[in-house]
Amino acid sequence: MTTACQALSFPLLAPAPDPVSLGRPISLQNALYFIAVVLSLTILLLDTSALDVLKRWKLACVGGDGWSQVAQDLGDEYLIGVGKADITGPVVEINLMGYADPKQVGTGLRQRLYSRAFIVGSIDHPEDRFVYLVLDIQSGDTAIRYGILNALRELGLSYDVYDHHNVAVTGTHSHSGPGGWLNYLLPQVTSKGFDRQGYRAIVDGAVLSIRRAHESLQPGYLGVGTTKVFGANINRSLFAYLANPAEERARYTSSAEDDGSVEKDLTLLKFQRASDRKNIGVLTWFPVHGTSMLGNNTLIAGDNKGVAAYLFEKSTRGDENAAEGFVAGFSQASVGDTSPNVLGAWCEDGSDQMCSFENSTCSDGKSQYCHARGPFFRAKDNGQSSCFEIGKRQFEPARALYDQLELSLVPVRGSWVKSFHTFHNMSGFSFLLPNGSLASTCPAALGYSFAAGTSDGPGAFDFTQHDGNEETTSPIWRVVRALLKSPTTEQRECHSPKPVLLDVGEMYTPYQWTPNVVDIQVFRVGQLFMIISPGEATTMAGRRWKEAVHSTSSALFQPSSPAPIVVLGGPANSYTHYITTEEEYGIQRYEGASTLYGPHTLAAYINVTLSLLPFLSAGASAPPRHEGGLFPPDHSNRSLSFITGVVRDGATLTKGFGAVLTDVKPAYKRGQKVSAVFVGANPRNNLRLEGTFAAVERMAGTGEWERVRDDGDWGLVYSWRRVSEVLATSEVTIEWETEEWTEVGVYRLRYYGDAKGLGEGLTEFEGVSGYFRLDK
Prior knowledge:
Helix content is 23%, strand content 27%. It is an alpha+beta fold.
């Protein structure tokens, strides 16, 4: 018996009746088919949208026997779970990670940072699973990953399933988070060493997000789709990209707007639980640098991907198809040569000229005045308006694709949930290239153009991209290099044509400066393959890596598996700087100079990846465990730190902690900024993880106050300022950028703080502004 649910599903899920049968008596199935077509056309002519009607039909059919027809189109069932947790480290007095500027020190919080965890497992073999973490930080890291794995082992037997092979720690590559948590010495230099407080915030929050995902595991479906994102990224090293073969570049040119110089595709993986067909999360991949917030920004934020995740999660509140606690992860992809500053690089020297194409310099021959411009570069807000806009430009097509996937998606099929991970020594690795010639990698080294920076964040002194070397820079840098570690002749020849500035892979005092042992990891669920890259792959490097995996997996696993879909995420697990093509490496702009292991770095990554792909086959045994094998060092317990702690906090002579120094005005219009200043205390005393420093409260109809904004909202800004070092006094400013859609009413601001006494513990306090009215 054909049910109404099945009949209505025919136009979506079944072929039309055979035209030959139209001359015969109409069967019940064919009659129901044509009725469903007529109903569908009627729906399209009504005010109610077809999408809404079909959603209601889908929900109505969940309990009926017609659902089996729909379920067949959702793909295979997997164990799925998502989780989110706060990882916001110290928001003041710590150097920000990304621009390597020791003067860029945190002064407050624009938006909290989060870890978002996505777990996929096999229904039949639950031990086959993986965890994909998206952290609002600059990159994955060796010490962070060790900390996460060690903490998981302490949670009990049910967490023993998580190990090196199936845990990926990726970063959104935000350049506006606190630094000091990385494992190796080089990135610790500008942050005055290792900051344990920030390290623990990231590790503990990442573990909490995994716990939440683990505890929510349940049967569900995965669907994948792709859409175009325009206006959110450009290639900042186009001169290097054009060194790739013209015929290769031509394969990716589809229009003037999509010229192939960067990837415009956003891939979205939807997580849908089986119990009620509600969506619990999405995981996306799209390449754009986390450099919308500029090098002069001192407010902690997740940059444009943090904005995109915030907007997506906010958009699902009240959505009947989204579960409570919906998690949206916006992961990086082939990010290496991308920039969110889509108006290009311009000279800020009064000339109003674009920077030179080859080496990103201005009329003085230097790079310092060359700055890339975001969509709202004229706003004097350190990149915050452009940051929100680039985040929105990722969110909007992602949300449109998500809505489209309600009706049409590529279901993930195949019971295979597999993963592998290996530690590989890139210092002197010899292997055969596809053409049969022998190639080798080198101990890590950085070239002269590394010190030039990029148009997103130019370097200092006289370094330039592309043509930086010993002859074009001051002789003092040869002296500096000699004092640190002069590269051997063999090292110079291995890295050629890169002129070596810092021989970081051979520097071990007081401990290792940069990794030589790298993480290589791939996940597989059904036909979806995820390359977990430890470095920033450029656009063409990422394409070659993905195409190699696609080609090899097709040969290995088809026809038993649908055509593979391959994505690349990173930087993950450790931070190995950049991965360029050999042609781009030869140009020696910033990305090539930062490709650590020589001209064959990309080829080596591909070689090792392909050699381990057989571990992802359906019947493959588990890859070998890491016990007794090669491990990179964990410096978290031996790193140097020159970061001073908080000694004490002092209030004023007449006002206590939390007292209002400058109050709000009685009334504001929507779109205006509301602010108040309080007697403050150092926020490093208590990071208030899973909590907030600031809040906006609205008076409800009952006369009670309810919280409507907190640190997780983009429009609420917390700023801290030291008033007196001697008296240890400080001030906190809370500013609310009211939105045009904000509900009118009566509001107030609230400040949460913790004061430290000399030789005493912490004292918790609060401050409350006067109330104010917000009108249209």
